[in-house]
Amino acid sequence: MNGYNFAYLDEQTKRMIRRALLKAVAIPGYQVPFGGREMPMPYGWGTGGVQLTASILGADDILKVIDQGADDTTNAVSIRHFFQRVAGVETTTATTAADVIQTRHRIPETPLRAGQILVFQVPIPEPLRFIEPSEQETRLMHALEEYGVMHVKLYEDIARYGHIATTYAYPVKVDGRYVMDPSPIPKFDNPKLDGNPALMLFGAGREKRLYAIPPYTRVESLDFEDHPFEVQRWEHACALCGSDHSYLDEVITDDQGGRMFVCSDTDYCQSRRGEVA
Amino acid sequence: MLSETGASPKRARPRLTVAGLHKRFLLHGQGGVEIDVMRDLSLTLQAGECLVLAGRSGIGKSTLLKMLYGDYRIDQGRIRLHFDDGDLDLETLPTYAWHGLRRDVIGYVSQFLRVVPRVAAVDVVMEPLLARGADEADSRQRAETLLARLNLPERLWQLPPGTFSGGEQQRVNIARGFIGEHPLLLLDEPTASLDAANRDVVIALIGEAKARGTAMLGIFHDEDVRERVADRLLPLDGSLGGLSNASQPCRESLS
Amino acid sequence: MKKPVLERPVLLDVQGITRLYGPAKGCEAIDFQLHAGEVLGIVGESGSGKSTLLRVLAGLEAPDAGQVLYRRQADDAGGEDAELDLYAIGEARRRALLRLEWGLVHQNPRDGLRMGVSAGANIGERLMAQGQRHYGQLRASGQAWMRQVELDPGRIDDAPRTFSGGMQQRLQIARTLVTRPRLVFMDEPTGGLDVSVQARLLDMLRTLVRQLGLSVVLVTHDLAVARLLAHRLLVMRRGQVVETGLTDQILDDPQHEYTQLLVSSVLTP
Questions:
Q1: Under the phi-then-psi rule, with left for phi > 0, alpha for psi from -120 to 50, and beta for the rest, what region is C66?
Q2: What whole-number distance in Å separates Cα of residue B187 and Cα of residue B53?
Q3: Per the count of CB atoms within 10 A, which of A2, A110, A232, C225 is most buried?
């Protein structure tokens, strides 16, 4: 496409973001400020993730974009088309075939491999924000590892609901140091953060922060000794592929209350069905 | 025992000596007027002895007790406590040490009860024991025994003494003062508002304290009581009072 | 009879503390020592600098000059430096000290509580900050402390905003004392409360001081509160200490002109 630099952003901006990313990789879980640019889409639509993807994408890379696990939802389709137009890169829906996967709210079920990069879209990067409105104070709390308040939130969950009711954006501690918001992925995906061979990058466009989990990094979900971290379980298996171990979405099928449970990861579901067929 | 001869060693030496005590109040609010209320007062008090301060009414006998208790500063002179293993001079005692001294050594029965409002009488009485880390149940029992002895009706024990009559408050105050069995006890009119029966109880308490070796310094207006408890009288007309009749120069607004 | 042991180790050694916002605004050249187990009252009128001094002592505001030295007990120090210079140590250490070994009770409980989370979470926060990770034990501590400050343990899951002012203040005290701090700073702890509630709180504070062996720096403008809680007083006026002494001495035998005026200005019902 004429008139645009490769992958939309100019090279100086990409360089600035890559430098920030290097710092983020060097300090796992630490939020690095970056000079966010205006993107041709509204905040909340993945501007943070898009800028990160634009900065790391090479002409030979194969890109996959998912939203809530699906390749065919509006957000995923439009971001995929965006990069097809401004970078001319090859795209895919197959997790195994992708070099870069931009995601909103899920980690693919298919295990990632070394060399792959997962880019998360992040609405609120600061895990301490719910209790401390001051940015200056939260930075200090991170710097001094004052993380007692994170457990205050979990304590409140148990006091109120009898168990830790936080089901998404469940806070983690990265490499035994920084407490990090893993973006609104279901806590079902939290174990996939731990020791993952892929590089995981997180971009928050509105707040202009990025952070990273390098490959094979220890990532622990916060919990109590007598209320250990647990992931969601379903009584059903996927109505389409029969999987009993993946994250399921409940889908309403008619106006009479008909419903079914299906994998939220469309690529995973389809590939299983392909194998079965 | 080792080589005790004759009188008990408790009585062999004084517990308290006061020498050349002066007290002057400077009143800034009244044009810097100075009032000498005490001149060159000296005394010696033995263990097991009750020394009664004698003198005209209104010359400020309480001033001496207040100096001994640390309520008033010591301008000039010496107040020395004697212990088996040495002496302690109160005029040079650091401020922070008074708290422990009052807890362990010097007890004071003042004319007025000054306590946290809404605290039950029995809790007021047992506090000196708790302050020393005593067991709560034991302390409570001792407090109740004393209150019973002083004929304070049992229904009042769990009530705060703020609403009690003068005599009832006085008995709470006496129980609180005697429960700690301090080796030096200062008594400021402890029997002032008591009836004959309760006066007798206080006299008995003083007698028991003497037997324990407590040294007491007291003010008693009631002549009958004075005669029954005093081992000696200390005449003070020469060293107290003076230039004016203002014996209480500062308002005791918090008393 | 043996001589009583009256020596108490110095816990806080304050040397030449000055923090001025303008001439006579703030506090100037303050020296004193706080001994273990002592309750020291700082009294004076509004604007006398007592709150500024407290903020400096409590580690919230660096002084323009002077030092605040904290002499830790051997058993606390655990092989670390026995003496800490509050504003010479790093911020991380200072904040950890404030969070774990010291406590601060604000006049307004809203400043010291997290109003949005339950009473139990408020009490448990300092323990969680210390690394306690057992929900059942945190809850048990929360209930025990609620009993200690005369709150109904059945209300452990209620938010502080559903509590009365006096209850909120007691909750703040429980939240502060749960880690058994050595040293507690209190800024007008009974300030905003009804008189009847004040009395109960005063009695509770006295009991806690005795039971926990607390050392306290108490700021108050209320001489009656000072009389009942403090062993010793500093009288401040226009940023300076004009008189110090045993509480009874300051109130019954004030020496300085200003102290005499202050004491004689108290209303008695």
A1: left
A2: 10
A3: C225
Q: Does C206 sit within 8 Å of B95, measured CB to CB?
A: no
What are the tens digits of pLDDT across the range B197-220? 999 999 999 999 999 999 999 999
C90 Cα to chain B: minimum distance (Å): 31
Backbone angles phi, psi at B191, to 5 degrees: -105, 10
**Interface pTM, i.e. ipTM:** 0.87
Helices (H), B61-183: 61-69, 95-104, 121-131, 136-149, 166-179
Alpha-carbon span A114 to B121, nearest angstrom: 77
Q: Give the amino acid at B226.
A: R
CB–CB of C117/A156 below 8 Å? yes
Which of B73, B80, B96, B251 is the best mutation test for C, with the most CBs of C within 10 A?
B96
Residue C45 · residue C262 · CB < 8 Å? yes
- Residue-wise pLDDT tens digits, C26-82: 999 999 999 999 999 999 998 899 999 999 999 999 999 999 999 987 665 565 658
d(CA A158, CA A164): 5
Is residue A29 annotated as a catalytic residue, yes or no? Answer: yes
End-to-end CA distance of chain C: 43
List A29, A46, A69, A205, catalytic entry: A29
In chain A, where do the E strands start and end? 32-33, 62-67, 90-91, 100-104, 117-121, 172-174, 178-180, 199-204, 209-213, 219-221, 248-252, 259-263
pLDDT in tens, A51-109: 999 999 999 999 999 999 999 999 999 999 999 999 999 999 999 999 999 999 999 99
The SS3 assignment for B235 reads strand
How far apart, in whole angstroms, are the C-alpha atoms of residue B73 and residue C194? 34
Q: What angle do CA B187, C223, B143 make, to 5 degrees?
A: 40
The answer to whether the CB of A155 falls within 8 A of the CB of C135 is yes
What tokens appear for C52 in the block? 């500024």
